[in-house]
Write a structure and sequence with these properties.
Layout (H helix, E strand, L loop, with lengths): L3 H6 L2 E7 L9 E6 L5 H12 L8 E5 L4 E3 L6 H4 L7 E5 L1 E7 L5 E7 L4 H12 L7 E4 L3 H10 L12 E2 L46 H8 L7 H6 L6 H7 L20 E6 L13 H16 L7 H21 L9 H11 L14 H6 L3 E11 L5 E11 L2 E5 L11 E4 L4 E7 L4 E10 L2 E9 L2 H15 L9 H17 L22 H6 L2 H12 L7 H13 L7 E7 L6 E5 L3 E5 L6 E6 L3 E7 L4 E6 L3 E7 L4 H14 L12 H8 L4
Parallel strand pairs: 1-5, 6-10, 7-9
Antiparallel strand pairs: 1-2, 3-4, 3-5, 6-7, 8-10, 11-12, 11-17, 12-13, 13-14, 15-16, 16-17, 18-19, 18-24, 19-20, 20-21, 22-23, 23-24
InterPro entries: Band_41_domain (IPR019749), FERM_2 (IPR035963), FERM_central (IPR019748), FERM_CS (IPR019747), Kindlin/fermitin (IPR037843), Kindlin_2_N (IPR040790), PH-like_dom_sf (IPR011993), PH_domain (IPR001849)
GO molecular function: integrin binding
Protein name: FERM1 protein
């Protein structure tokens, strides 16, 4: 037997590979080491043996077999577990990576392959001048979404890379700290209300980075034209199972790129992962607003999110604003910004923010003492067997978070026919402005699933008031909440946008307009209508937005996207404990929804506000969640790693802790505590 002290003193050989560009220097070195040699000492000995004077500060050891970095240079080889059979590669921590942005532009930049993905994304966003990096993450395209493209590309040459924007010389790319001026609250940038980009006088924002005026324009401006061939090549989900494939490839935020098999010059997608766009400010967020708009635009064009014909025409009209404005601006120069235009855009932002708790509590005393109620004649529609519906008018009273209905107004003092508690329910709009149909579909949780109730309103105003009350009640809040009136205005604004599609104003002759309608609407509608019909309808709706600035059109587009019933839902195929069939789990910013895979109907909803704790059994890869009132669920994820869902839940909880009162530094430790798990 040999004592540990004697064993540690013995020298043994360790093979090291150096990733360098020198032709006259070997790449493999055999070093005599001892177990008590620390990692930093090994690096020093290796550099001395290479005998090349250069900056080696970005180099570190990558342990090939264990897929991990040896970054704690004060640790000894024994403590790291390194033995003679270990394959250590001495390589740079920052490497080139290609990122496809939401606007489908590809940028090439140097990223840390040794930092956690959370920190790497933060550095990337500093380079691209995107605030609130915690809302974004990196996505690896799953095999299922590439199959279609691979078949088409079998006989084609290598893809053209001329369109790649090179940002490899930025200070963050080199591992240096970013210019703090990018996030200075004391900046007074000038902003172009037409393009939404910083005016040239503010290009000093980027003076220490690689974003020059041209590059900034590429990231902050929209380029909506796309060929039908390009759309045809892109993955278009048809079912919920297809949509689940879109979310399977999110990288683990608590591990590095190298640890997850990402190699130098690989291509990843940079996307907004969490749909809580906090503190949007057009003065500083030209790039961020444009990228959110682009992610929304492509989600609608590729039918990743469903919308009605009316809604599709709204989106097409707002996109057409870019097309028409680009033509009209070609012979004009734009004047500098008016302060009033900036104020107008900022006012539009008040309806944009999506947070877990909603609006600010400006008058708490009034919220507590004055609980308003609604009382109206509404039609109750109850689905019956054999596809028949029973429609009857009742007197409805909305108080707190419950709806009661009575035979008539006179009987409202007695007991109601039924009282519906809306807390935790799903609220789905059922609106067709052209047909004067203003319906509210309520899916109320009951012991064996969801109870469906349809309410039919008479007009837009009545619908907006009742719909806003239902939305708040589903979150456990009453009409006394200060977010009620903004919610009413937001709904009315969306209905007003739907009225655009019915406008009778004369539009330009379709024959005289150079427009490809397939670039503005999803394939479903290009198949339904002839090209000239679509152009005429888009231009007709566009008459109502023609006076909008381009950035206001973007903000309206984002607002309309947020108003869609499926907004913010990320789908996964799961198997619930005790179930014999697969279901779809929808993860949103404030709730989880169990959805029937065959019909697409919601079965049960669980809100994060009622969640007590969640954890993962890593051995069987099962997520378990406990809610109030002794409700608990457990499921395994079939379409992705369970860590992705675990991180989604923790990530949304983390984002709900943000406040405008705090500075913009993130509590990274709290994020990893909520999302990392104990694998």
């Amino acid at each position: 037997m040999v004592s540990s002290t004697e064993y540690g003193s013995h020298t043994w050989d360790l093979m090291l590979t150096v990733d360098h560009q020198y032709e006259d220097v070997d790449k493999e070195f055999k070093m005599g080491v001892t177990g008590d040699l620390h990692v930093g000492g090994l690096m020093l000995k290796l550099v001395e043996k290479i005998k090349k004077a250069q900056d080696w500060s970005d180099y570190a050891f990558w342990w090939e077999q264990k897929k991990c970095w040896l970054l704690k240079t004060h640790w000894t080889l024994d403590k790291c577990g390194v033995q003679a059979d270990a394959k250590l590669i001495f390589t740079t921590q920052h490497k080139m990576l290609r990122l496809r942005l939401p606007n489908m532009k590809t940028v090439r930049l140097k990223v840390s392959f040794s930092s956690t993905v959370f920190r790497a994304v933060s550095d990337i966003c500093k380079m691209l001048n995107i605030r609130r990096s915690e809302e974004l993450s990196l996505l690896r395209q799953s095999e299922g979404t590439l199959k279609k493209k691979k078949k088409k590309d079998k006989n084609s040459k290598e893809p053209v890379t001329e369109d790649i924007l090179n940002l490899c010389n930025s200070p963050v790319s080199s591992g240096l700290p970013a210019n703090p001026g990018l996030y200075s609250k004391t900046m007074t940038p000038i902003y172009d209300p037409v393009s939404g980009s910083p005016a040239s006088s503010t290009i000093t924002w980027f003076s220490d980075g690689s974003l020059n005026e041209q590059n900034c324009s590429i990231l902050a401006l929209s380029h909506p034209t796309c060929s039908p061939e390009m759309l045809a090549e892109m993955y278009q989900p048809r079912t919920l199972a297809d949509k689940a494939k879109l979310n399977a490839g999110w990288l683990d935020s608590s591990r590095s790129l190298m640890e997850q098999g990402v190699m130098e010059e690989d291509q990843l997608l940079l996307r907004f992962k969490y749909y809580t766009f906090f503190d949007l400010n057009p003065k500083y967020d030209a790039v961020r607003i444009n990228q959110i708009y682009e992610q929304a635009r492509w989600a609608i064009l590729l039918e990743e999110i469903d919308c009605t014909e009316e809604e599709m025409l709204i989106f097409a009209a707002l996109q057409a604003q870019y097309h028409v404005s680009k033509l009209s601006l070609s012979s004009e120069t734009q004047d500098s910004t008016c302060e009033s235009e900036v104020d107008e855009v900022e006012a539009a932002l008040s309806n944009l923010e999506v947070t877990l708790e909603g609006g600010s509590k400006s008058n708490i005393l009034e919220d507590i003492t004055d609980i308003p109620k609604l009382a109206d004649n509404l039609k109750l529609v109850r689905p019956k067997k054999l596809a028949l519906k029973a429609i009857k008018t009742y007197w409805f009273v909305f108080r707190d978070t419950s709806i009661s209905y009575f035979k008539n107004k006179e009987s409202a003092l007695g007991e109601p026919i039924e009282k519906l508690n809306l807390k935790g329910c799903e609220v789905v709009p059922d609106v067709n402005v052209a047909a004067k149909k203003f319906g509210i579909k309520l899916l109320i949780p009951v012991a064996d699933g969801m109870n469906e109730v349809y309410l039919r309103c008479d007009n837009e105003d009545q619908y907006a008031r009742w719909m806003a009350a239902c939305v708040l009640a589903s979150k456990g809040r009453t009409m006394a909440d200060s977010s009620y009136q903004p919610e009413v205005q937001k709904i009315l604004s969306f209905l007003q946008m739907k009225n655009w599609t019915m406008c009778s104003q004369a539009a330009s002759e379709p024959e005289n307009v150079d427009m490809k309608p397939e670039c503005f609407v999803s394939p479903r509608y290009t198949k339904k209508f002839k090209s000239k019909q679509l152009i005429a309808r888009i231009l007709e709706a566009h008459q109502n937005v023609s006076q909008m600035s381009l950035v206001e059109a973007k903000l309206r587009f984002i607002q309309a996207w947020q108003s869609l019933p499926e907004f913010g839902l990320s789908y996964y195929i799961v198997r619930f404990k005790g179930s014999k069939k697969d279901d779809v789990l929808g993860v949103s910013y404030n709730r989880l929804i169990r959805i029937d895979m065959a019909t697409g109907d919601p079965i049960t909803t669980w809100r994060f506000s009622n969640m007590k704790q969640w954890n993962v059994n890593w051995e069987i890869r099962q997520v378990a969640i406990e809610f109030d009132q002794n409700v608990s669920i457990a499921f395994t994820c079939l379409s992705a790693d369970c860590k992705i869902i675990h991180e989604y839940i923790g990530g949304y909880i983390f984002l709900s802790t943000r406040s405008k009162d705090h500075n913009e530094t993130l509590d990274e430790e709290l994020f990893h505590k909520l999302t990392g798990g104990q694998e």
